[in-house]
Amino acid sequence: MKSNVKTENFQKSAVYIFKFVIFVFLFIASAIALLLLSSNASYPCGIADIVFKAPFSTVSYADDSSSGEPLYIVIDAGHGGEDGGAVSDSGIVEKDINLDIAFTLYELLKTSDYIPVMIRTEDRLMYEAGQENQKKQNDISNRITLAKEYNNSIFVSIHQNKFPIKKYKGFQVYYSKNNPQSEVLAKIAQNNIKSYLQEDNNREIKKADKNIRILDSLDMPAILAECGFLSNNEEAELLNTKEYRNKIAYLLYGSIIQYAKEYEDGKL
Ligand SMILES: [Zn+2]
């Protein structure tokens, strides 16, 4: 009997030891697995690295500023409603060309790190009820007020030109004197149009005087693009095609992105 009890005790002990060994084995195996998983996080092809090495940063240049606000691109389609702006011999009206280019620019910028906003989205002047006495003055005043709501912003106004002598043509940018960055942005846009659309365009960017009240009143980097001359029949017909307007919008988009990225990289 005694020996049987001993055998039984030995068997019980052996089972406990076996269970203990299994437990220790599983514990060590789990620890090794956890260690391997955590070391994987710093592996060069880890998900974390892919996110941080994405070619287009989701951090806009605005986050480098003290305000921490996103960068807004304020797009101003000139004229509207009863103010058509320039009109070509064939009846092409400036306000419509401006709005179409502005909308395309807006859609393109929606794909960027920046936030586009439109001053006008329909065929109207921007005066309010009770402001009918001085429609155009109030229209400009309201556009200025709207643009100033965006502290960290770039302002781009879209217009078409006209001149009594019909031979004159070509894209030309005016810039605000109130912010040195306006001239930088204007140069980039003028150069891109020359490089990619109008090789024979020798126009130079111009500092806006008080006659361009909207640029005279804004402090952010601000430009006004005269995209072409409606008084030049050839250019008016080009501006009347969607394809040509898209090219202008795309080059303005590229210029804004180029400007913002160069600013981010500290090259400006
Ligand atoms: Zn105009």
Structure notes:
With about 270 residues, this protein is of the alpha/beta class. The chain has helices at about 1-40, 45-50, 95-110, 135-150, 180-195, 215, 235-240, 240-265, and strands at about 70-75, 115-120, 155-160, 170-175, 205, 220-230. It has a six-stranded mixed β-sheet. The protein is elongated. Mean pLDDT is about 85; it is low at about 30-65. Zinc ion (ZN) binds near residues 79, 85 and 94.
Spans of at least 5 consecutive residues whose pLDDT stays below 50 are 32-66
Structural domains: how many: 2
The CATH H-level superfamily of the largest domain is Zn-dependent exopeptidases
Q: What general form does the structure show?
A: elongated
Q: Biggest sheet, open or closed, and with what strands and sense?
A: 6 strands, mixed
Strand content: 5-15%
Q: Spatial order of the strands in the main sheet?
A: 2-1-3-6-4-5
Gross CATH architecture of the largest domain: 3-Layer(aba) Sandwich
Radius of gyration: 32 Å
Mean pLDDT: 84
The molecules bound to the chains, other than polymers, are: zinc ion
